[in-house]
Amino acid sequence: MSVFARFAPRLQEAIVARLGWSSLRPVQEQAGEALLDGFNAVVLAPTAGGKTEASMFPTLSGMVSDPPDGVGALYIAPIKALLNNQADRLGLYTEMVGLHRFVWHGDTTDHERRQFLKEPAELLMTTPESLEVMLVSQRVDTAKLFGDLRIVVIDEVHAIAGTDRGAHLMSVLERIARLSRHDVQRVGLSATVGNPNAILDWLQGTSRRPGRVVDPPKQPARRQLLIVRSQDLSDLALDAARLAKGGKSLFFCQSRSVTEAVAENMRRAGTEVFVHHSAVSKEERLLAEERFHHGTDACIVCTSTLELGIDVGDLDRVLQAEAPDTVSSFLQRMGRTGRREGQSANTTFFCETSEGVLQAIALVELAKSGWVESVEVSDRCWPVLIHQLLAMSLASDGVAPEVAWEHLHHVPDFRGISREEFDRLIEWMLNDESLRLASGLLVLGPKAEKRFGRRNFMELYAVFSSPQSYTVQTSGTQPLGTLNQGFVDRLVDGVSCFLLGGRPWAVLRVQHDDRRVIVEPAPRGRQPTWGGYIPQFLGFHICQKILQILTSTETFGYLNPASQAVLEEQRQARHGIIEPDCEGIEEIGGEIFWWTFAGGRINSTLKHAMASIGPNWRIINDNYLLRIRDDNLTLAGFQAVRQQLCDPAFWDNETLWQQVAASLPNYRLSKFQPLMPPWVEQEVVANYLLDVPGAKRWLTH
């Protein structure tokens, strides 16, 4: 029997009569079979490849045949914009079979929520944070609301798996799954992921259902690619404006400051431009999306805010300043085009730098070979464990440590944390007054209350996750503008520096209680960066691909003459240095350059490993090399240190790596760092900056 024939008759009729479909796509056939047979699943298909229907049709069929009491299905998206974007489509699908859908996120009004709680829709569309709000709200009878929950569909699952938000979602889902009388079915939707089986294992959680990856063969598609070398930002914007003329384009930039500068230059060239990034107000972003929908000669200049599957209508072109950091991002962005009959998916890279040209070539060549990054899922996600302890202590006016452990150790992202470590954390947080013990229950302590708000949970939770605004002002109380919550969470008092209103500002202190950032003009020569000085690392495979490109004579038909010249120039500059028999070692004027092309985290690890051996060298590292200098530096001395690094036993010295972790710069990676014990904070920072197994593999093989 076909999958279509297994759907409820009312759904079959609606698909034919309302949608005018005569058949299902392969991904919808295969996903339908897996979901109707009760499997948990990860469903893979290109952007606009029919994943939403692949998950929703079987879901709706089940609810039409057996109406749920309360919410029967959850659709979860990582961002509100994607929820809003899917609301009409899922509203149509539910309405055409006599069901209802409801969208609950930070912008949903109290009146709408009260109506929903009185008469729950069968399909609830929401975000991970809003789910937690429901769990702790006194007004929401979650046991009744989710008692008949059957299925959870997570869109763009690759965007949250392996992140703090993914760990948070899994913890919240496990809490909700316990309220249901069913083994809740779990479905993840993704266009691009390199390790779908690992994502499926993570998604399964405590579910006992069998799992299946749905990944039908992809149809070969035409692609149009071009890499352009531009002299500077204004040239880049003018080139883009010429290409964007007469069509609708998305122009992706790697930072907010570049986004603003490109938009301004394109406007001067006469292009209708809208700006879309997280520091732009919600109203401005929605206006950009809406006007762009109905425009014919327009460009949205954006950061990654438009990378996920938000539909801004038929696109003619995707433009990219420099190159994104991952193949996954490149494919996701390119997949926004080529949706119309006869149109090719396309991307044009505009690169100011030689590194951008090489990185763009590497991304394209890796994508052509079918390689995409794997998502690394950690089982020791300390920041979210601390977050969940605070949230659970508030959800029912206190939680017993045993009850908290019983829930948390089942969550995949916390499974690597032992009971002994958990107890040690609780003891620290009690002594540190982040938590208190009252009648055997953990409740919020004065330190957490002072840091994150008063006892009113909604206020405290807003500091956790909702996009609050912070006022930026000088120490003399002159107002300068606003920053959003996610950006402020990355600022470090006395360290971070950022651009606002075209001027660089240094952060004196962040005041969370009244949401203010106190700044002073940044001193001359201090380079501003959005979000502080946390290094942004390229992955091992991309850097190794760049090395392969530089050591080959291969030509690439998608380079314009200026980009081709850059490639030849870079090959010539590295000739005789990065070939295997040269070991990538170059000595220039008392400095040694070690060209590893091993990626940011491995090079960071090598830097700290060399420092631990003894020489007091000054070492600067990036994604491609380590630059070593010292008055007494010799090539023989460097080779002796490098030889020690090649001994596998060096990398197995746990005491050494604990000492290295203790010596690392104290980057602010999580808003919960002020509540972390020193040993936890060291582990979190070390996991971001170091890849000890990767460095060992690279050096010893």
Q: What key phrases describe this protein's structure?
A:
single chain; 701 residues; alpha/beta; Rossmann fold; Arc Repressor Mutant, subunit A; 5 domains; seven-stranded parallel beta sheet; six-stranded parallel beta sheet; 29 helices; 24 strands
The proportion of strand residues reads: 15-25%
Helix percent reads 40-55%
SS class: alpha/beta
CATH architecture of the largest domain: 3-Layer(aba) Sandwich
Number of domains: 5
Span from first to last CA?
Answer: 52 Å
Structure, described:
By secondary structure, the chain is of the alpha/beta class. The protein has five domains: 3-214, P-loop containing nucleotide triphosphate hydrolases (Rossmann fold); 223-368, 3-Layer(aba) Sandwich (Rossmann fold), CATH 3.40.50; 382-452, Winged helix-like DNA-binding domain superfamily/Winged helix DNA-binding domain (Arc Repressor Mutant, subunit A); 464-521, no CATH class; 576-700. The chain has 29 helices and 24 strands. A seven-stranded parallel β-sheet has the order 3-4-2-5-6-1-7, sandwiched between helices. The protein has a six-stranded parallel β-sheet with strand order 8-13-12-9-11-10, sandwiched between helices. A five-stranded mixed β-sheet has the order 17-16-20-19-18. Strand 12 (317-321), helix 14 and strand 13 form a beta-alpha-beta unit. Helix 3 runs parallel beside helix 4. The longest helix has 16 residues, at 80-95.
